[in-house]
Each structure stands twice: as C-alpha cells, then as structure tokens.
User: Fold this.
Amino acid sequence: MDHSILLKGNKYGIVVVLDESMDFLQLLEKVGEKFKESGKFFDTKSKLAITFEGRTLSNDEIKSLLDVISDNCDIQISYVIDSNKEVEEYFQKSILQQEAQIKELTEKLLEEEEKEISNSVEDSQQDSTNNGINGMFYKGTLRSGQSLESATSLIILGDVNLGAEVQAVGNIVILGCLKGTAFAGCHGNTNAFVMALDMDPMQIRIANYIARASDQDRIKKPKEPKEAKIAFVENENIYIEPVSKDVLNDISI
Assistant:
C-alpha cells in the first residue's frame, strides 16, 4: 500500500501527511490521485482548514498543492494551518484580500444591475444582445468536459477548471479561478466583459474577439499571487487588467 500521502481528519478540517523525500512534482501527482479517490468522503458543503505535515514547504509549493487539490475534488479550503507563522500569516492575508475583492465586486455588480433595471424601464424593448438585466447564478466547480450557458449575464461562485467552458449573452463573473474557456457577449455584444478572482484561462472570447493562452503560458510554473482581473475589448483587442476602480470607470461595461 502506498503510504507516501496520508489524509487524516481533525476538528478543524484535514491533515495531509506528505512523504519527506519524494520529488515534489511526483508528490503533486500523488496528492491529486489521493484527493480524487478520497475527497468524496469529506464534507464538501463546509469550508475546511488544511494542515500539511511531514516536510517543509515553501509558499509556492503550498499554493501548488492547493491548486491540485482543487482540481481533483470539491473540498472548499478556506484556511491553511501551519506551524510556520510566516506562511500562516501569508495565507491569512490572501484570504482577507479575496474577501475584500468579493465584497467590492458584489457592490459593483449590484450597482450595474440597478442601472440596467433603470434603463429597462425607459426602454423595455431593448435588444437582448445588450448586457442582461437579470443574471444567472451558479454555485460549484465546473470540471473538464462540463459547460454552462446563460441567456443573460453569468455569475459563478466557484472555479472553471481546464477543459470546462462557460458562455453568456451578457457578462461573466467568476468568484474563483478561471482556467478553462469563457465566452461573453456571445450574440455580438463587444461591451461584455469577463472577470475572475484568479485569471488563468485557456481561452477568452468576447463577441467576435478571441484571446488564447500560448503553449509557453500553460507550462507549469510557480504561480503569482492571486489577483482579481477583468478582460474587455478595446481597439479591437482583448485586454486583461487587474481590477481597480480606474479600470472599471474607464472601460465601457
């Protein structure tokens, strides 16, 4: 029996015991296989804390482990508990930043929806290719081979993994990681946008414009800190920029 990866539960969440001597890339593969087999036995409705034991890990290695766990099961990890205070404080700060980004994005979306509703009262016959008044909400992770479509705008509370696809007549907002394909403004609306808390897409389409990740970009490498970004069309090109008040005010959405 392979004991290179052991999973244990405690009152906080999950303890992952890692082999100390195994090559890290091989270890990542083993962790993915273990969580794919065992993830269904954990509570996927509650947010869990996770602890890594058995070897010393860098911040980038911990982030890579969290990514491979997310790709292979539906467990919601909200916190990393570590004896290294620097690592623990790093991830605690990242979580607080994500919560602030979600709050800011939600307020912006509500503001835009109010404007859309006000405009619809003045012109109830407005063509459906404009940004949708209503939005479709979806909670959960979309895995490879899965797809989701919306006749209005689409808000996803979860990740869109590599090989998954989402499509909307209006805008697409992903409160999670975008690794697959997103197609906004699919009826030709060039003012549509795609926004994600962690933007790492295989492909983004807005109306008739397409942006693809190059093969070099898909090579596995240490990730940068997660940052909310928005993709939009300007001068017949798709641009992807960090979300800021200035960017949101400058683009047509």
Summary: Residues 124-133 have pLDDT under 50 and may be disordered. The chain is about 30% helix and 30% strand. The CA atoms of residues 203 and 212 lie 4 Å apart.
